């Protein structure tokens, strides 16, 4: 498997973009005219969304829809309800409808080669947003617009160091991990980045004692945390791969008579409004931001791709980290 880092250095984007230039010519739209708004054919973008599993996803869908509107594109949008087969059929539909560009946020990393080959054969360029895929042929997609999830995992471990210090925590750190959707890039990579820092710097005192998927949902987080607390009542840290699972877990922690943010220190990822609310109430200790507002960047890339321009292989999102004492000030400025 090629890591995301290797993707960066891969020169395949150039090859893919060359293919796209031909595609732009074939539909009779000149690069200069495409999407310029001066009576030219507007861009039709087919977008297959993962689902509506989290606050992050809602903000991401809204961002894609409003940015497409703003750019004057025709957007065909479908929600796959976290099912790969639904995404594959949505992509096949977009191919049949001969959209100009297909964008999608792949629910899991594997199993895309066949449908991506169909898109390539139809000369429809594919842009990944948010999540990456593993593929045997790097020319099957042009670029990824999204975050560095491995780094988010590392940042979560680093911020946990601060949280433990602030709490004056002594002794063993017994971590419960709520993983995202099994096989999804953010679940794999966040776990990997966290583990990397843990093994390098805290091999003696930190241990992930339980780890299971909560599928990035509140209901999943709540249910799995309840089971964790039964099997491992001595857990003192929760690392949740997203805010929604942390919020679900908080309900189970409280139901078990414990104080979230005190008896169990909580670090999560995303930075959605409800996460900030929980943080300002002292229930989440720190959040690593993952920015869902990818719409405007995506529309820019789609235009370039349609025009046959070369784009970077991975267009990374910029994000920050937040500790509890910053939550109240930051809350009114959160856009999602
Ligand atoms: O963290 C989670 C969502 O892929 C980055 O998916 C995204 C993740 C996000 O369901 O809340």
UniProtKB/TrEMBL annotation:
Q: Name all Periplasmic binding protein domain ranges.
A: 47-309
Matches recorded under CDD domains = PBP1_galactofuranose_YtfQ-like (cd06309)
List keywords of the entry alphabetically.
Answer: Signal
- Where is the secretion signal located? 1-24
Q: What's a single GO MF annotation on this record?
A: carbohydrate binding
Q: Does the keyword Signal apply?
A: yes
Keyword Signal included in the entry's annotation: yes
The places in or outside the cell where this protein is found are: Cell envelope
UniProt cross-references to InterPro entries, sorted A to Z: Peripla_BP_I (IPR028082), SBP_2_dom (IPR025997), TAT_signal (IPR006311)
Q: Name one GO cellular component term.
A: cell envelope
* UniProt record similarity statement: Belongs to the bacterial solute-binding protein 2 family.
* PANTHER family tied to this protein: D-ALLOSE-BINDING PERIPLASMIC PROTEIN-RELATED (PTHR46847), GALACTOFURANOSE-BINDING PROTEIN YTFQ (PTHR46847:SF3)
Record-given protein name: ABC transporter substrate-binding protein
Origin species, per record, is Streptomyces coeruleorubidus
